């Protein structure tokens, strides 16, 4: 099936389309961006190295085979510490800003309380990102240049996939620090390698999650579901199984493929890329076989 290209946007997005879409799957990486605007760095109170700890570094590379498999891949190029695309648009701490707010903010969430709203208040280390208050007009500026273009592109990819196949599966790709569960990489028996999040069964068909978990575990990976990550805004927004739209978040232990201190890929990254390619093939084929609407399946 030929896949129409969406219009280009001004925001720093990387949209890699297959020449021909063969599987009802879209892969998105909202946190792998590493383009830091100069004006952002000028007002940051922490060094770039501290900001980069929030990145899902190299995750887009782990899924780089998606277009060759007939799957579109969307990756944000703006960094998570600048705009978090996996948050509601106005999920923000009003105390961060100076000046009139564009509208009432959704500040009563656990994520905002932790300093992790759409515009994060703290770095991964817990340090305040900004020296002082942020001008309130930054809210609409960052929504307009980053958040909205990302979700406009992602919505378009999901809906185009649905129109082609009668169903769509979004794989929302993330990484997690090896310390996320308090377990280190050296303890093979206890290490958590992969966390699959389906919003506690609300965002994705159980057979897809079962297939993903079974295949990953078969590769020797320790897989958990929804703990400690069940999925964020993206999983909740795009996961509507009753409407033929499914969303599955995958979190990959960073220690499996990168040096978390030096922020560099390890030689094992090639093996993890191979595993994620196999993961997409298996889950994509299962989605093709089980999610198609009757009219398309009969053709």
Brief sketch in words of this structure:
This protein has 9 helices and 11 strands. The chain is an alpha/beta fold and 299 residues long.
Mean pLDDT: 91
Distance between the termini: 14 Å
How would a textbook summarize the main sheet? 7 strands, mixed
Number of helices: 9
Low-confidence stretches: 1-11, 182-187, 293-299
* Helix and strand sequence: EEHHHEEHEHEEHEHEEEHH
The proportion of residues in beta strands is 15-25%
Decide which structural class fits the backbone. Answer: alpha/beta
* Overall body shape: globular
CA gyration radius, whole angstroms: 19 Å
**CATH hierarchy class name:** Alpha Beta
Residues in helix, %: 25-40%
Multimerization status: single chain
Describe the protein's architecture and organization.
The chain has 299 residues and is an alpha/beta fold. It has a single domain (13-85, 140-297), classed as Zn-dependent exopeptidases (Aminopeptidase, 3-Layer(aba) Sandwich). It has 9 helices and 11 strands. A 7-stranded mixed sheet has the order 1-3-2-6-9-7-8, with helices on both faces. Helix 4 (110-113) links the parallel strand 4 and strand 5 (134-135). The longest helix has 29 residues, at 137-165. It is globular and about 55 Å long. It starts with 12 loop residues before the first strand and ends with a helix. Residues 1-11, 182-187 and 293-299 have low confidence and may be disordered.
